[in-house]
Structure formats: C-alpha cells, structure tokens
Design brief:
By secondary structure, the chain is mostly helical. The chain contains 8 helices and no strands. The chain starts with 9 loop residues before the first helix and ends in a 19-residue tail after the last helix.
Length: 179
C-alpha cells in the first residue's frame, strides 16, 4: 500500500505514455519496470544495500558516513525531495522491523550530523535485510507494491483515449552556425 502510488513520478509517467498508445497492460507494466530500474528511481536500493553492508562490515556508522561524505559519494537512502521533514513511507515501515544495531546507528548519525531522515529506499532495504531475503529483493518489493498503482494509471489513461505527445523545442546551435 505504501508504494502503490506516488504522484506522477517517472515510472507512472512512463506507464501512462505507453498506455496512451493502446498498448497491453503487460507492456505498460514493462515500461514502469524499465523506468523503476534506473539508478535515480528504484535503483537507489542497490546503493543503499552497499551502504548498509559497509556499516555492518565496519561496525562504525559514523566513520562510514564521514568517509563517504569526504569522498563525495553521498549517503543514499536519506532525504527525498518531496519530503524534507522525512519520508512518511519510511516512517511507517521502519518501526515495524525488528531492532538492528547497525541500522539504528546509521539512522542516529544521519539525523544528528546531517539532519537527514531515511526514505523508502532505505526502509525497503532494511525490510529485505530483516526478512533475510536475497540481495535485490528490495527493488522487487518496490516493483510489486508499485505495480498496483501502475495498473490503475494505465487503466485511467486508456479511458482518456488520447495519445500523450509532448512537444520538444530545439535549443542547440542554429543550423549552419560554425562548429
């Protein structure tokens, strides 16, 4: 339920564009999955996996965060542009999980030093680890949850019976202008 819909994000828009062509529901879901796989969408879960593994291996969340920030790597799984005060989906999911000292330490370090709260990608990886599911299952959980929303978007778009056709305007150099 927490992942079924999230406004008109990249994957929902991809689903709507494909649905507007009259494509099958399966093709619409494939479009959503394709968009979700990108590193700036659901693919963030793989970066969170690496972060939590680093914390588990080192046993020192503060050192991991400091090293990542000094190297310019960032700390995936924290912040969400729509939720500056914290992602409500993560806030709903994380308290349901069994305690994990490494996860708790990382959450504390990020809140105290950076003022950042976890997002749903972090919560899904924490869920995956708590359930001892295979690596990569967090993205699968994301996709399963979002699929219901994608189907709803596709059905709604098909009722509109109009092709989505955004327009583009060339902004490059004028034709024949040196180069």
């Amino acid at each position: 339920m927490l992942l079924a819909d999230h406004e008109l994000n990249a994957s929902a828009f991809a689903v709507r564009v494909v649905a507007s062509t009259g494509a099958s529901p399966g093709a619409c879901l494939a479009a959503g999955l394709s968009a979700l796989s990108g590193p700036l969408h659901g693919g963030t879960t793989s970066r969170v996996e690496r972060l939590l593994a680093e914390v588990a291996d080192s046993g020192d969340a503060a050192a991991v965060v400091e090293t990542r920030l000094r190297q310019g790597d960032g700390v995936p799984g924290f912040d969400h542009p729509l939720y500056p005060a914290g992602d409500p989906r993560a806030a709903a999911l994380l308290p349901l999980l069994p305690p994990d000292p490494g996860r708790a330490a990382l959450l504390r370090v990020m809140a105290e030093t950076a003022g950042r709260q976890p997002n749903v990608d972090f919560a899904l990886v924490a869920l995956r680890r708590s359930l001892h599911l295979p690596v990569g299952a967090a993205l699968a959980l994301f996709a399963i949850g979002r699929s219901a929303g994608w189907i709803a978007h596709a059905l709604e778009q098909r009722q509109d019976d109009r092709l989505i056709r955004p327009r583009a305007r060339y902004t490059g150099p004028a034709p024949g202008a040196g180069g």
